[in-house]
Q: What sequence folds into this?
């Protein structure tokens, strides 16, 4: 991660615009304090990606908040749209500079760096903007390793970067949400613990989604809910006991793929 931030530091001065990709399910947790210093003296387009996984009204409230602070925003679903609005926004935030060059008869080239937490969809967005799969993507954290320059059109070049997190989470809710959305590598997480935490949050904030999908009683203890899901789904180990590990992974995967319905973990 430090290596990734160092690489971005080396390249940020070459870039005119930052494309800051946010996972719409966890807007607050998508803001990396380490990247804040990059945003200070750059034009930034905030991209609310994975908008298909949340309710439109909930997301619009966040967008309004950002726009109140004078931030430029775009809403995208990297996997299904062509993300054309991002290119329009890049040119819009850089318009005064483009106009200045244009008045001298020069067509100024724009270099845009895409940044954000792991798994937020940065590479997917680039592919979607370019209408071809040239950046490697994947449904886990840490897919993009090094930097990769790709041209969008005759005027814009895009720099894909690895997702970045910060060293220490002061707020455990942030850490949990980043884990739920797959921004922290599953390799360092205990899947049963993660699922239990997810169920706890579910009981408080979206119990109907759990009961709708799995027909479970959400008045029970999280571990009982997990066992109940296992039995209902026929996820058992030899001897007929519930396979808690596999059920935990299934539950988290269901959330990540949107099979639990539209869930925003952090509302305005
Ligand atoms: N449902 C949904 N899935 C998306 C969207 N955008 C990307 N994805 C999925 O999210 C996963 C991560 O996408 P990537 O583009 O690899 O994410 P990244 O930000 O480049 O990740 P790193 O390189 O690991 O930092 C992939 O499985 C994508 O298919 C979206 O708008 N909606
Ligand atoms: Mg990537």
A:
């Amino acid at each position: 991660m430090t290596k990734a931030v160092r690489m971005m530091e080396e390249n940020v001065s070459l870039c005119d615009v930052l494309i800051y990709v946010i996972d719409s399910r966890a807007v607050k947790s998508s803001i990396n304090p380490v990247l804040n210093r990059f945003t200070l003296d750059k034009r930034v387009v905030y991209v609310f990606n994975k908008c298909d996984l949340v309710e439109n009204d909930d997301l619009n409230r966040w967008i309004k908040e950002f726009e109140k602070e004078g931030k430029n925003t775009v809403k995208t679903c990297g996997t299904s749209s062509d993300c054309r609005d991002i290119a329009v926004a890049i040119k819009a935030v850089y318009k005064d500079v483009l106009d200045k060059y244009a008045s001298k008869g020069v067509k100024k080239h724009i270099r845009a760096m895409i940044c954000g937490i792991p798994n937020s969809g940065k590479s997917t967005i680039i592919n979607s903007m370019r209408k071809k799969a040239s950046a490697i993507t994947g449904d886990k954290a840490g897919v993009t390793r090094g930097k990769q320059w790709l041209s969008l059109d005759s005027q814009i070049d895009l720099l894909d970067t690895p997702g970045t997190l910060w060293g220490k989470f002061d707020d455990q809710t942030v850490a949990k949400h980043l884990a739920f959305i797959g921004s922290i590598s599953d390799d360092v997480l205990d899947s049963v613990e993660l699922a239990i935490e997810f169920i706890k949050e579910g009981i408080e904030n979206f119990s109907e989604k759990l009961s709708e999908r799995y027909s479970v009683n959400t008045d029970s203890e999280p571990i009982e809910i997990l066992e109940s899901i296992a039995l209902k789904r026929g996820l058992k180990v030899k001897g007929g006991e519930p396979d808690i590990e596999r059920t935990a992974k299934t539950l988290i995967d269901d959330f990540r793929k949107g099979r639990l319905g539209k869930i925003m973990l952090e509302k305005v």
